[in-house]
Amino acid sequence: MKILGIETSCDETAAAVVQDGQEILSNVIASQVDLHSRYGGIVPEVASRQHLLAAIPIIQEAMAQAQTHWSDLDAIAVTIGPGLAGSLLVGVNIAKAIALAQGLPLLGINHLEGHIYANWLEGSAPDLPALCLIVSGGHSDLLLMRGHGDYQPLGRTRDDAAGEAFDKVARILGLGYPGGPAIEQASRDANSARYRLPRAWLKDTDDFSFSGLKTAVLHLAAEKGEEGGENEKAAIAASFQEAVVDVLVTKTVSAAKRLGAHHILLGGGVASNRLLRQRMAARSPIPVLTPSPILCTDNAAMIASCGYFRLTAGTCSGWDLDIAPNLRLG
Ligand code: KG4
Ligand code: ZN
Predict the structure, then answer these.
(1) pLDDT at residue 226, as a whole number
(2) Ligand 1 pocket test, candidate residues 297, 303, 329, most atoms within 8 A of CB
């Protein structure tokens, strides 16, 4: 069964063809990073206009790379939210047009659920129940996946998402955008033990909070940054990364043990962070699955995979499918 996935929720225009929910036949991603980096962050209006320009050529490219004709497809899966309204509208309307023209089922997909399904795309079969940590630019969500489409929400961020904290701290340190890869790069040979930055443990809850840590970096950078130059900046970046990873790993592993999960599944842009991947694997008593970095950040293969499991469960969307910019999972 071949499904075309379309993803336009944020600043990546992506299309992919996936067979039977697990085999990637094509995975085409056009990033808008260069376009937004001059503004230091995503400008929603610019993003939606760019999706409009890029979406059709990207879909055609995904179909060509997969050597797939429209008549070979079994369904169209598209992200409906959460995300930027104008950007989501582009993907959803193109998906509807293709589905209607080709007489194919239409599947509206939750972007966060897509991030979880990236774990089905590289030959592994996650064992459920699984503890899922989705850490991206807009979300830090901890969920228990009990079955396909069956989620128990456990915790989420109370303020900044993990990726948002990386982006803001990178801006404070003048490291550029997007912040996650910039902080990871700056931290590479730096002393991560130089500063013991605060960790918000929020006892007796699986929620997260990163805004206090961000403020601590702001004060530290104002105090030390100027005098210490690049070395000092790198030490602050590394100490920040250490604090975020410590909280994410400790809380995820503790929830996984408490709930008897069989696997830990990571997803979202921050899951491509090497320290997070290594620490999670080292500290977890159960196996940890982490998609390749290209499948952690936004892509359409994960949307097509999720669509497959939805379609085989017998559910598809109607023609009144609409965007849901504030959609939650579970
Ligand atoms: O999942 P994603 O591509 O888009 C959203 O759905 O938000 O995640 C983007 C976020 C950005 O905040 C970016 O800074 C962060 O993921 N990110 C990273 C790394 N690569 C991307 N954060 C930490 N380390 C990385 N290597
Ligand atoms: Zn995402």
Answers:
(1) 63
(2) 297
Alpha helices, DSSP H only, in 156-225?
162-172, 179-187, 211-220
**Across the beta sheet with 12-19, what order do the strands follow?**
23-31, 12-19, 2-7, 75-81, 106-110
> Is residue 298 lining ligand 1, measured as CB closer than 6 Å?
yes
Is the CB–ligand 1 distance for residue 291 below 6 Å?
A: no
71-85, 123-137, 144-158, 227-241: lowest mean pLDDT where?
A: 227-241
Q: How far is CA 210 from the centre of its chain?
A: 17
pLDDT of residue 112: 97
Please report the domains of the chain, with CATH numbers, ordered by start residue. Answer: 2-118+295-312 (3.30.420.40), 127-290 (3.30.420.40)
Task: Flag whether pLDDT at 227 surpasses 90.
Answer: no
Q: How many helices (H) and strands (E) does the chain have?
A: 11, 10
Q: In the sheet that 150-156 helps form, which strands lie side by side, from edge to edge?
A: 150-156, 140-147, 130-135, 263-267, 288-289
CB 46 within 8 A of CB 90: no
For 270-307, write each residue's pLDDT tens digit. 999 999 999 999 999 999 999 999 999 999 999 999 99
In this structure, are residues 140 and 211 in contact, taking their beta carbons and an 8 Å threshold?
A: no
- Please choose from 88, 139, 166 the residue to mutate so as to test ligand 1's pocket, defined by most ligand atoms within 8 A of CB: 166
Report if pTM > 0.70. Answer: yes
Q: Which of 265, 288, 278, 310 is nearest to 118 (CA)?
A: 265
Considering only CA atoms, which residue is closest to atom 7 of ligand 1? 137
